From TrEMBL:
Gene3D superfamilies: P-loop containing nucleotide triphosphate hydrolases (3.40.50.300). It holds the Pfam family ABC_tran. The keyword ATP-binding applies. It comes from the Bacteria. Transmembrane segments: none annotated. The keyword Glycosyltransferase does not apply. The lineage of its organism: Bacteria, Bacillati, Actinomycetota, Actinomycetes, Micrococcales. Residues 8-241 form the ABC transporter domain. It comes from Cellulomonas avistercoris. This is ABC transporter ATP-binding protein. GO terms for molecular function: ATP binding. InterPro entries: AAA+_ATPase, ABC_transporter-like_ATP-bd, ABC_transporter-like_CS, ABC_transporter_ATP-bind, P-loop_NTPase. SMART domains: AAA. Keywords: ATP-binding, Nucleotide-binding, Transport.
Length: 268
């Protein structure tokens, strides 16, 4: 696929829920593209519709209007080319299966032969630094390690796009920093396209090559900001850069505007 052809295209996406006391307009109108190989973060105030947007992107919820297209095909059901990593790692892994079998499960479901499957599982676990944990069970691992297993499972599946829904919200700060670096490394090593949803402004700037800021509901894209930080990022030096501070201030101000319901800024 040529570099500039979008992999994911969201066009005038609108979602109105039928609530008990009338319609709730969660998403007003969202339009954006993600090109192959990009790492895009989506950030927005609580209740702005991030989960609703992800459900529509992953084919779990039909939009009220507009469309989602992945690799040229309209998304109407969970696409085979997409893997999703959720916040609740504890509920996304099967406790009665070893790490090896948890990671291999989607490949087994896809009919990948055993030998090939085991090799892919081992590669993915090596990539997330858990090559030694093949025969352990999820409940024998820390929260951060379980989330690594969930990332390995998504990676082993070789998706065209990896969607992550606030994946590090439930882990401690040190683990979170390690996992952020892991996402950047996986993205760089494997060249997979990543769409990362977070409510954490610093995280969005540290991780992203682009940050899409959402407004409050009914949601629109408030700003699409290019993150012009060096590709090699480091928790200490990158976060100490004056440019990092400028960018996080810009995102913070937009989010505050969004919370106050102020008008949309011109795209950067
Ligand atoms: N099933 C539903 N029926 C009616 N309204 C809903 C439903 N699901 C979500 N909403 C409303 O849609 C809006 C967006 O909700 P959503 O959960 O997508 O936001 P969010 O950005 O993911 O929130 P948070 O960051 O707090 O998790 C909210 O006003 C919410 O109350």
């Amino acid at each position: 696929m040529p570099e500039n052809t979008p992999l994911l295209s969201v066009r005038d996406l609108k979602k109105t829920y039928q609530g008990a006391s009338g319609p709730v307009e969660a998403i007003g109108s969202i339009t954006f593209d993600v090109r192959p190989g990009e790492l895009v973060c989506i950030v927005g105030p609580s209740g702005c519709g991030k989960t609703t947007l992800l459900k529509c992107l992953s084919g779990l919820l039909p939009p009220t209007a507009g469309s989602v297209t992945l690799d040229g095909a309209e998304v109407t059901a969970p696409p085979k080319k997409m893997a999703v990593v959720f916040q609740e790692y504890g509920r996304s892994l099967y406790p009665w299966l070893t790490v090896r079998d948890n990671v291999g499960l989607p490949l087994k479901a896809r009919g990948v032969p055993r030998r090939e499957r085991l090799a892919a599982v081992e590669r993915a676990l090596e990539e997330v630094g858990l090559g030694h944990a093949l025969d352990t069970y999820p409940w024998q691992l820390s929260g951060g390690m379980q989330q690594r297993v969930a990332i390995a499972r998504a990676v082993a599946y070789e998706p065209e796009i990896l969607v992550m829904d606030e994946p590090f919200a439930a882990v401690d700060a040190q683990t979170r920093a390690d996992l952020e670096d892991l996402v950047r490394r996986v993205w760089q090593d494997l060249g997979v396209t990543v769409l990362f949803v977070t409510h954490d402004i610093d995280e969005s700037v540290y991780l992203g090559e682009r940050v899409l800021m959402l407004s409050s509901s009914p949601t629109v894209v408030q700003q699409d900001l290019a993150i012009d930080l060096p590709a090699a990022r480091d928790q200490l030096t990158t976060r100490a850069m004056p440019r990092f501070t400028e960018l996080r201030t810009q995102v913070y101000e937009q989010i505050q505007r969004a919370k106050r319901g102020e008008t949309v800024a011109a795209p950067s």
